[in-house]
From TrEMBL:
PANTHER family: KINESIN-LIKE PROTEIN KIN-10A (PTHR24115:SF416), KINESIN-RELATED (PTHR24115). It comes from Salix udensis. This is Kinesin motor domain-containing protein. Belongs to the TRAFAC class myosin-kinesin ATPase superfamily. Kinesin family. One of its GO terms (molecular function) is microtubule motor activity.
Amino acid sequence: MARTPSSSSSSKSNHPHVLKTPQSKHRINFSSTRTPNPNPSPNPNYTNKETPQDHPIEVISRIRDYPEGKEKLAPILQAKPENNTLRVRADIGYRDFSLDGVSFSEEEDLDSFYKKFVESRINGVKLGAKCTIMMYGPTGSGKSHTMFGCSKQPGIVYRSLKGILGEEGSEGGDGEKLQLGTFVHVTVLEIYNEEIYDLLSTNGGGGIGIGWPKSGSGYKVRLEVMGKKAKNATFISGNEAGKISKEIQKVEKRRIIKSTLCNERSSRSHCLIILDVPTVGGRLMLVDMAGSENIDQAGQSGFEAKMQTAKINQGDSKLTMLLQDSFEDDKSKILMILCASPDPKEIHKTICTLEYGAKAKCIVRGPHTPIKDKLGAEDSSAGRLRIQDSSYGPVYL
Ligand SMILES: Nc1ncnc2c1ncn2[C@@H]1O[C@H](COP(=O)(O)OP(=O)(O)OP(=O)(O)O)[C@@H](O)[C@H]1O
């Protein structure tokens, strides 16, 4: 294992642009003033006038299988593929959320999901593009399942590695076809309580060792942030998707977890996997966020638990710092995958998740404007992004 390479400079444009806020609270629209993409996406799921590739943030929803053992109640979620709308049936009527794509895992397995919504972005990374894929949703909604897969089907991490490392060339050790000369540097970080930990590091190294007496396995190395990078983060290099993916999944288990009423293995921290492709300058950031549920829904009580949940939410600012390039670089794309359950009992969390996605679409991004300069004078939360929609008030990612 080695230390993280220095970052390559991101490309900048002279004309920062401001994205329009949505027409209504629940609607996500593409701005109609932007130039049409000369190379539109071949993805047939996208029916908007502009392709999602034009918009810096693409938001799709993935609805997990009905949880095993739970009584199946009348469905409350309905996809309308003709306009990529997800309709939620609430007590007082319907609410439509206009997204860039909707996928039910009962109808589309991880393979189809990846091909439809993720593959084209990974092809871009292979050619030198930068892309961030974020998993957002309440505990148990399938974020880690989509990211890492299960014994039957691999998730986005493995599939992306395989996509980047290629289909041409000679056979690799696992029977995979390797693209000659291509390799990746991989860093795996955990963000918890506003601290960044190096999940790949097994010793003190250059970072600061810290103990996890209750739920961690041994010591984790805490890292300092320098610029937009985690200083001295360990990375692994390789060209075999299978081996790298196994290593990532092994160290991901070192994340802070705690069982809740909703999920036996509930992630309490954000996990950030950074895949660099040095030969072309491509970069893929995969973020498995901590469960978004609030403390009561997670079934915890007590002061300590409340403190813990409050700090999970605060953790977003450190995350934003590390993702700053994605938000500022005009060429970098962000794919937000909203995970939700079809269970009517989860409707409140599902609506909150979809609303969060709608807000994410309204982020103002200007290549030359440091994030802190976009915040109002009254804001002391430098390093976070404010959503420019007055109907919500400031919201931070
Ligand atoms: N689409 C799916 N099909 C089948 N099982 C699923 C699906 N999504 C999730 N699961 C299962 O549900 C459980 C919870 O899923 P997962 O751990 O991915 O949730 P999560 O959103 O990452 O939760 P947390 O935020 O608490 O970590 C796991 O046992 C997982 O295997």
